[in-house]
Automatic annotation (TrEMBL):
Any one Gene Ontology cellular component term annotated for this protein: membrane
Lineage: Bacteria, Pseudomonadati, Pseudomonadota, Betaproteobacteria, Burkholderiales
UniProt domain EAL: residue ranges: 23-275
Domain of life: Bacteria
Organism, as annotated: Trinickia terrae
Name this polypeptide is given: EAL domain-containing protein
Region of the whole protein represented: 503 to 782 of 789
Length: 280
C-alpha cells in the first residue's frame, strides 16, 4: 500500500474510497496474507440454553499483520467483498475451520462449527468446494453450519436458493445472520432451507433497557419457533440479558458474557471450565 507509513490510523477503513492502485495493492497484500499464514481463525462458543451445553463454535477471521498487528475483519472483509477477493478468503476460512473441527472430533470433542459466508460466495461452485473439503478432512457435513447475513441472502434470493438447496442436500446447515437488520421477504425465507435465525446483536444489546428492542427479540423468537427453526442471540454482554433470553425461550446464546472469540488452542480448556461450572 502506497500510504503504508506509520500513521497509526486504520488503513482499511471500508467506507473510504480507494484509487485503483491502492485497491490492487491491498488485494495483493491480502493474497500475501493468505499465502503466508497471516489469517487466523478465532472461535466463539455458542451455548444451548436448554441444556447449558456448549457444542458449537463460530469461526471469526482475523488478520495478524506483521506491522499493524491484529486487524479485525471489519477492516478488510467489506473491501474483499467489493472486489470479489472474499471468495479466496472464504475458501481459506472453510478449509481451516473444517480441518480444525476434524481435529477436535479426533480428540473426542464433538463440536459443530459455523463459518460466515458472503453473498459473493453463493456461486454454483460452493457446494462442491465445501463437499471436497469435508471429504478431505473426513468430517461429516452435519457438523458444518454456514452463517449468511439476511441482506446477503436477499441480494438475489432466487439465485441463492439453488445453491442453498444443494448445501442442504449435502447436510450442511444454514443460519441467517444479523436477522432483523435486512428486509427479509418471509415468502423467500419460507422457501429457503434454513435451520437457525440469529438475532442481530444491536437488538440483543439493547433489549433489557429498550422495550422496542425487546419486542423485536421476542417477535423473532416467536417467528423462528412458528417456522420450526432454532433461534440464536448474539452480543450477550451481561447476566440480565442472558436471563431474559432464557425466559423468552431463546435456544442458543453467544456473547462476551459467555466467552470472547478464542484461538483454537484455548477452546478445549474453555470447554472444560464451562462443563465444570455447569456441573457445579
Ligand atoms: P458477525 O458474523 O455478526 O460476528 C459477530 C461479531 O460480534 C464478531 O466480531 C464478534 O467478535 C462480535 N461479538 C461477539 N460477541 C459480542 C458481544 O457480546 N458484544 C459485542 N459488542 N460484540 C460481540 P468480529 O469477529 O470483529 O467480526 C465482525 C464481522 O466480520 C462478523 O460479524 C462477520 O460479518 C464478519 N466476519 C468475521 N469473520 C468472517 C469470515 O470468516 N468471513 C466473512 N465473510 N465474514 C466474516
Ligand atoms: Ca456470524
Ligand atoms: Ca451476526
Ligand atoms: Ca454482524
Amino acid at each position: 500500500v502506497a500510504k503504508r507509513a506509520n500513521t497509526g490510523v486504520a488503513m482499511y477503513d471500508a467506507s473510504r474510497e480507494r484509487g485503483g492502485a491502492e485497491r490492487l495493492s491491498l488485494m495483493s497484500e491480502l493474497r500475501h496474507a493468505i499465502d503466508h499464514g497471516e489469517l487466523r481463525l478465532y472461535y466463539q462458543p455458542k451455548v444451548d440454553l436448554a441444556t447449558n451445553a456448549m457444542a458449537h463454535v463460530e469461526a471469526l477471521v482475523r488478520w495478524v499483520h506483521p506491522a499493524r498487528g491484529m486487524v479485525p475483519p471489519g477492516e478488510f472483509i467489506p473491501f474483499a467483498e467489493q472486489t470479489g477477493f472474499i471468495r479466496s478468503i472464504s475458501r481459506w476460512v472453510a478449509g481451516e475451520a473444517i480441518a480444525q473441527c476434524a481435529r477436535w472430533h479426533a480428540l473426542g470433542l464433538e463440536l459443530n462449527v459455523s463459518i460466515n459466508l458472503s453473498a459473493r460466495d453463493l456461486g454454483a461452485d460452493l457446494p462442491d468446494a465445501l463437499d471436497a473439503l469435508l471429504r478431505r478432512h473426513g468430517l461429516d457435513a452435519r457438523w458444518l453450519w454456514v452463517e449468511i447475513t439476511e441482506s446477503a441472502l436477499m441480494d438475489d434470493p432466487a439465485h441463492a436458493i439453488d445453491t442453498l438447496e444443494r448445501l442442504h442436500r449435502l447436510g450442511i446447515r444454514l443460519s441467517i445472520d444479523d436477522f432483523g437488520t435486512g428486509y427479509s421477504s418471509l415468502a423467500y425465507l419460507k422457501r429457503m432451507p434454513v435451520s437457525e435465525l440469529k438475532i442481530d446483536r444491536s437488538f440483543v444489546m439493547g433489549m433489557t433497557g429498550d422495550a422496542d428492542d425487546e419486542l423485536i427479540v421476542r417477535s423473532t423468537i416467536a417467528l423462528a419457533h412458528n417456522m420450526g427453526l432454532q433461534v440464536a442471540a448474539e452480543g450477550i454482554e451481561d447476566e440480565a440479558t442472558l436471563a431474559r433470553l432464557r425466559a423468552l425461550h431463546c435456544d442458543i446464546a453467544q456473547g462476551y458474557y459467555l466467552s470472547r472469540p478464542l484461538p483454537a488452542d484455548k477452546v478445549e480448556g474453555w470447554l472444560r471450565e464451562w462443563n465444570e461450572v455447569v456441573a457445579a
